[in-house]
Amino acid sequence: MSSRADRPQFDPRDPLGIDDEFTPEQLAVRDSVRALCRDHVQPHLADWFERGEFPQAAELARELGKLGVLGMHLEGYGCAGMSAVDYGIACEELEACDSGLRSLVSVQGSLAMFAIWRWGSEEHKQEWLPRMAAGEAIGCFGLTEPDHGSDPSSMRTVARRDGADWVLNGRKMWITNGSIASVAVVWAQTDEGVRGFVVPAGTPGFSAPEIKHKMSLRASVTSELVLDDVRLPADAVLPEVTGLRGPLSCLNEARYGIVWGSVGAGRSCLEAVVDYATTREQFGKPIGGFQLTQSKIADMAVRVQNGRLLALQLGKRKDAGKLLPQQVSFGKLDNVRGAMEVARSARTVLGANGISLEYPVIRHMNNLESVLTYEGTGEMHALTIGQAMTGLNAFR
Length: 396
Fold this sequence. Notes:
9 strands; glutaryl-CoA dehydrogenase activity; 14% strand; Butyryl-Coa Dehydrogenase, subunit A, domain 1; flavoprotein; 3 domains; single chain; alpha+beta; Butyryl-CoA Dehydrogenase, subunit A, domain 2; 396 residues
């Protein structure tokens, strides 16, 4: 029989002991990313968010590259070749800091780099992936359009052949990293179906004006992509895929990161509340000593820990080569929804302080409104799950 001294102690920051499931190397990934966020990002976040700027994005990309986080789940070409769980742990820490930071990494690694790594030519890979993994080149991913988000099959951006060249015309909207990107992966309609193109940012006719007046993801670069008679050589096309299978495979990679990242946002809100509730006094004692506050904290803790368990389960399936797109939809739908519930409850515990950028909660609340929508709205993921459960297509 073990003595009381031998029993594990309850940890309010890891109530279910989920960290015990991680290897020492995975915990080192967590600690390294957490330290980068603490030292390079968190001191500036409130100011960046208030100003609606991300002035150190390029510098942070290089720091993230040194850490091996960019494209960390890809093999070769300067990429770290780490596991899906490793990548998820990094995403949780990045979004616990800010959704905009995790978005930078997700778009870089799971969208732009993955598209080139999975569907590009050897020349594309050699030219771009080592620099992108190092953070020396930033990528963006052009799929969403002003009039077509959830229905990419109706995109209006077109690419036509002109001799040996391709000529692209169209617009893309809500593009993370667009204004600071060295390269864009742009998807367009062609006579052969949807094709992807590697577009260097300096190509004539290509521009990426930044989108202003956002109330969410304010510490993030969000842009429009404008393509006016952008002429590209024949080898600019991604040769290994035709049709929506190409962009949708990339989106599935990014959605997986959101499953973990949204847990980080919820966890950050919960930790802020626990710290606040044990020090803020009303009616002669800390507010954490009142039943209603403890009930909210308990509900938030259960939601965050359930989200971590779901993310870990999907990560293990991904590492085993068994993860299905419908399962990613489970994670994206429920973990984002759960993080939003946690953030809103956390704001009520903080009272008036809940709207202050001295605390992370209102920033996470606003950011999660974007996370809910991008990489597939809640409605799209609900219909994906519904179709998988019933065998009936309700999209049309």
